[in-house]
Every structure is written in C-alpha cells, then in structure tokens.
Amino acid sequence: MAFTAELTYRSLGPLFYQTVAPTPVSEPAWLLFNEALAAELQWPEEARQTPLGLGYFSGNQLAPWMQPTALAYTGHQFGSLAPRLGDGRALLLTEVLSQNGQRFDVQLKGAGPTPFSRRGDGRAALGPVLREYLLSEWMAAVGVRTSRALAAVTTGEAIYRDTQVPGAVLTRVAASHIRIGTFQYASIHGTASDVKALADYVIARHYPQLATEAEPYLALLRAIAAAQADLIAHWMSLGFVHGVMNTDNMTVSGETIDYGPCAFIDSFNPNACFSSIDTQGRYAYRNQPPIAQWNLARLAESLLVLLDADEQQAIAKAMTVLNDFPAMYQTARLQRFAAKLGLQSPLESDLPLIDDLLNVLAEQQIDFTLFFRELSRAAATPGAAARALFAEDAAFDAWHQRWLNRLAANPINPAELSQQLLQANPAFIPRNYRIEQIIESALNGDLAPAKAFVKASQTPFVDDEYWAALPPADFCDYRTFCGT
Ligand code: AMP
Ligand code: MG
Fold first, then answer.
1. Are 396 and 390 in contact (CB under 8 A)?
2. Cβ of residue 335 lying under 6 Å from some atom of ligand 1
3. Cα–Cα distance for residue pair 313/297, rounded to 1 Å
4. Considering the entire predicted model, what is its pTM?
5. Which is the closest atom of ligand 1 to the Cα of 86?
6. Which residues have a beta carbon within 5 Å of ligand 2, which is an ion?
7. Is 59 exposed, middle or buried (0-12, 13-18, 19+ CB in 10 A)?
8. Which of 29, 99, 116, 334 has the smallest number of Cβ neighbours within 10 A?
9. Is 278 in the pocket of ligand 1 (CB under 6 A)?
10. Is residue 61 in contact with ligand 1, taking CB distance under 6 Å?
11. Secondary structure (3-state) at 159
12. Looking at the CA of 85, which ligand is closest?
C-alpha cells in the first residue's frame, strides 16, 4: 500500500477544530527519531531523519499534504468543568495509514500558540518532550495501548517555565486524539446532530463492528468503558500512575495519552501520587479505576441524547453500562495480575491472593517491578528468589505457600512457568531517577543515555542490570510537573 495522508477528522465540520499554522522556530536540531515507527507508518523516506524531516517535525515546513489543525475539546480538570480547552500547543498535521491499513494521527506537540492557548506559550520544554518520548515508547514495547513518539527535536529557542529552559517539539502518533472531552465539547457547544456525527465517526474509525448493532451508541459507550477498563488494569499491573486523568486526557480509543506528570511506582504504595499539583491525591494509583468510571459518567452524559428520546430511559440505559464498569475492571485486572503470577484459568476467587500480595508489598515497601521479576526466576521451588527482598520473611512465606498451592491446581513445570512469567513481568521500567539522569544529560548536550534507553526499551522483558537498578536510598518523594 502506498503512503496516504488525509485528515478525515475535518469532515466533522468547523465546530470541532481551528486551522492554525505552526510557528516557525529559529534553529531546529534532532533529539530522537523513530525509524521503526516511520517504517510502520510508511512515512516518506525523504522526510525522515533528513533536513526536510527536521523542517516538518519542528513546524518550520509544511508538506502540501499537511493541514495543521488544533482540535477543540472540553475537559473536567480535577473535577471542574473547563468548557473550552482544545489544543493549546498541539497541532494535528495529518492522518496516515500504517502498513496494515490502520489510521493514525500525526501531531506536533509544542509547535506554537493556537486560539486555544489561553495564557500558555504554545511551546513544550526539552525535559517533558524527552520524557514523553521515552515513557510512551517503553509502554508500547510492553504492549500497553498508547500514543507513540515519531520524532523529538529542539527548537533552538529558550522558553520560560520556573526558569529558562530549551524548547522542543514532539511528534506524537495516536490511533486518534478524540477524547471524552471531545464528546463533552460537542454536547455543550453543538447540537444533537454534532454529537451524532462524532459518535458515528468514532464508531467508523475505532469500533466499526458496532455499526450494525441495534443500539450502536449504547454499544459505543460500553465498548469505550471496556477499553478503559482494560487500559487502567494494564497501568495498574505495571505500577503506572498517569497523574492527570482529566476527561480531556482520556481517549475514546483506549490509548494512553498525555505523559505529563505520570510516573512509575518504585517501592509499592497504593497511595502513590507524583504530580505536584495533585495535592488531594485525586489521581493517585489506587484511585485510577474509580476515576475512569467517573470520567465515563461524563461521556455517558454527553451521549444521552443519542441513547433514547426519553431522557429517563436514556439515563437508565447509560447506568447499565456505568454500573457494570467495576466488574469490567475487576475482570481485566484479574487477567493482568493472573498473568503476572502465572495463574491459569483465573477465577474471581483468585483476587484475595492478588490483593494480599499487594498488601504485603506495601507494608514492607518492596519494589513492585523487582518483586515480580524475582518471582519469575527459574528455581526448583518457583518464586524462591523473591524471598531475599523481604526484611521479614514470615508474611512472604505465608503468601508464597498459598501461591504454590494455587499453582498446583494447574501443574506446570517450573522452567516453563518461569519462561511465562519472564514474559509477563518486565525486566525494568522507566525508573524515575534514571529518566531524570537521562534528561540531565540531554540538557548538557549528551543524548547517548536517551538513545541507550530507547534501545533497551525495545526488549523490555530482557534482563538489563543498568536500567533495572533500584533508585539510590536518598531518591524519594519524587515530584512531577505538568508540561505547562
Ligand atoms: P494538559 O494538562 O497537558 O492536558 O493540558 C491542559 C490544557 O492546557 C490543554 O488544553 C493544553 O493544550 C493546554 N496547554 C498545556 N500547556 C500549554 C502551553 N504551554 N501553551 C498553551 N496551552 C497549553
Ligand atoms: Mg491534555
């Protein structure tokens, strides 16, 4: 199939976007380029890591097949409604078809102000751009549904955050950038036919199998809820804390987007919350499932006009989906954690084994990633290597025996079990302290650590002592910041 670029999103009509050219930058330079992703997207060879590519990925040049577009959306931010948000520093350039015919958005992040910028400068800083590149590519490699990073460049221009920092532009690729907030926007600022047009577009693009359902919009709500349940369960199984699950940051495709203040848990703590502005812990690790449900309720409200002519009926239908969400999530969570523990044919009765383990990890402040990796090691008695991580063995021993008993229900030889577990439990995560070191080096002009991490991330289930190493003892109370 040949390269095709066509921005189908604009067929929704001008309510949904603004046309804005990127603001040129003075001296663009390469940070990183994702050759493998470029190949998957059939991105033109002459526009990859070439002067032309640098022009495109910095916003200094536009191809005739690009239509720079700022998307309009609403958002509940920390629970409060912001009716007009929209892309304040991002521009959708085009949509392309990948080798296997899947449609992807290609978007610049940090390409200059738009009518949605409010008081922001429309720019992004080198640190957050690199961070998003590295974290999203690691997530993609372990199989989490996520936006990807195609390119990262510096602008040669300083921008002002707390201090003066180098500006950068990220080129982000996603199945789409349609969010719960896009539906809220259509519902608040448009008519019922705008909401319908958006729902039909989302069904055609992300859930084509629903088009023939008797109640396609109710089915859409259910499908998005299921996608979110699976995504959040996947995050939870990796110790990932998104950090800013506002409705404008939650996609209807079920992909992770917006790697602002996110971070990974080191020693396990269900209350982990890294974002400096999240003082109440609204988006803490353990709140992610109920917050996803809260966000889905906002989606349901926006879809009500399509669910039934009678509002009470529409609400009743939406409630059937919302009420099912906790069970959808528990099912997805059971699957994810059962895979981490090698439990065949998992049942609801396995949940206490998972919950009790997490309690032990939290009580003894055991590193989440290291624990599951050590549990996976080949040994005559499966899991024996994990014991060394515990200061008090008794709690682990009691749990360990229960786990061995459960494994005995579906006998498997230890070597085979270990092979399975090593494929389910990553060898390393993007450790917060390592990411900080990588950014520090990049700020000093050394991109070697960033490139080394990208390379290691391609095989996240292969042991790597350097990237797996625990943070130094004095690295605690890690704080993250939104990109702004
Ligand atoms: P976020 O928390 O990154 O999802 O951003 C929330 C809103 O603020 C979105 O509408 C962004 O487009 C906007 N925004 C974030 N950073 C900037 C910036 N530097 N300039 C303009 N708008 C921004
Ligand atoms: Mg956002």
1. yes
2. no
3. 16
4. 0.98
5. 10
6. 249, 258
7. buried
8. 99
9. no
10. no
11. strand
12. 1
Which residue stretches of 272-413 are H helix?
Answer: 288-307, 311-341, 351-363, 368-375, 393-408
* 124 CA distance to ligand 1 middle (Å): 9
Q: Measuring CA to CA, which residue among 106, 18, 93, 105 is closest to residue 60?
A: 93
Tell me the CA–centroid distance for residue 164 and ligand 2, in Å: 23
Distance 248 CA to ligand 2 centre (A): 6
Our answer on whether the CB atom of 115 is closer than 6 Å to any ligand 1 atom is: no
Helix (H) or strand (E) holding 94, with range, is strand 90-97
Q: Which ligand is nearest to the CA of 88?
A: 1
* pLDDT given for residue 483 in this prediction: 65
Task: State how far the alpha carbon of 88 is from the alpha carbons of 71, 114, 115, 256, in Å.
Answer: 9, 5, 7, 19
State whether the beta carbon of 260 lies less than 6 angstroms from ligand 1. yes
Closest by CA to 103, choosing from 8, 199, 225, 33, is: 8
Q: Considering only CA atoms, which residue is closest to atom 15 of ligand 1? A: 484
344: tokens are 């065949």
- Ligand 1 nearest-atom number relative to CA 119: 21
Tokens 């930058």 sit at which residue?
A: 25
pLDDT band (50, 70, 90) for residue 482: confident
- In angstroms, the CA 471 to CA 240 distance is 16
Question: Would you call 248 a catalytic residue per the annotation?
Answer: yes
Between the CA of 184 and the centroid of ligand 2 the distance, in Å, is 14
Pair type for strands 124-125 and 164-174: antiparallel
Catalytic residue among 87, 230, 248, 367: 248
Q: How far is CA 9 from CA 106, 197, 204, 247, 363, in A?
A: 12, 11, 12, 20, 49
- Is 76 a pocket residue for ligand 1 (Cβ < 6 Å)? no
* Residue 283: burial class (beta carbons within 10 Å; 0-12, 13-18, 19+): buried
pLDDT tens sequence across 155-199: 999 999 999 999 999 999 999 999 999 999 999 999 999 999 999
- Residue with the smallest CA separation from ligand 1 atom 23 is 88
How many whole angstroms from 88 Cα to the centroid of ligand 1? 5
Q: How far is residue 104 from each of residues 175, 180, 435, measured CA to CA in Å?
A: 5, 18, 27
Q: Which ligand is nearest to the CA of 132?
A: 1
Other beta carbons within 10 Å of 247: 28
Q: Are 430 and 456 in contact (CB under 8 A)?
A: no
Q: Judge whether residue 400 has pLDDT over 90.
A: yes
Q: Reduced to 3 states, what is the DSSP secondary structure of residue 85?
A: coil
- Residue 130 token pair: 């690199």
The sign of the dihedral angle between the CA atoms of 386, 387, 393, 394 is positive
Q: Quick check: 1 pLDDT over 90?
A: no
Q: Alpha-carbon distance 137 to 148, whole Å?
A: 6
